[in-house]
Amino acid sequence: MSALLPLAVAIPVLSAALLTAGGTHVNRTAANLFAAAAAVAVTVICLVILLHPGTAPIVTWFGGWEPRNGVPIGIDFAVDDLSAGLAAFIAVLTVLALVMLAHYRETDPPHLQALILVFCAGMIGFVFSGDLFDMFVFFELMSVSAFALTGFRSRHEESLAGALNFAITNTVGS
Questions:
Q1: SS3 (DSSP) at 137
Q2: Between 20 and 30 A from 58 (CA), which of 22, 29, 134, 146?
Q3: Residues 6+ apart with CB under 8 A from 157
Q4: Which pLDDT belongs to residue 106?
Q5: Which H or E run contains 143?
Q6: What confidence score (pLDDT) does residue 125 get?
Q7: pTM of full prediction above 0.85
Q8: CA-to-CA distance for 172 and 17, rounded, in angstroms?
Q9: Low-confidence ranges of the chain (pLDDT < 70)
Q10: 77 three-class SS
């Protein structure tokens, strides 16, 4: 079960990278379907984690880090029922956002789809984090993609002003 935790973050990040690598060679329908398929896969993974029977949190240690002498120093994901539920909720909302994006005609693929997937990965990584370092990294990933999503319609001054205000307010708040 602990092997699924990194996949919930890796799938959207790798999918966003593949969409971005495809660039303008990817048409809108293919980008929407690929991003939605990745989000559905993440949703299934998060639901499997949520419905996993057990009382103890699921913990995954990265890079060979393990607690030594009872001191948990390292990079880990620690998932309990609350974080698993939040991750499943985030994944379902991402699927719904990508379905709604199929009706939004003012964007060229695959940029918006990739940003939504990175935002999803940042949020899920944040709720799965078992240490402050990971929380900071995923908070920054989530913030940067949120700033870009806010100012995505850069042809409009209101969009850029909103993104700048959001970035300043969020940076001061964090």
A1: helix
A2: 146
A3: none
A4: 64
A5: helix 132-150
A6: 95
A7: yes
A8: 29
A9: 1, 105-109, 153-154, 156, 159
A10: strand
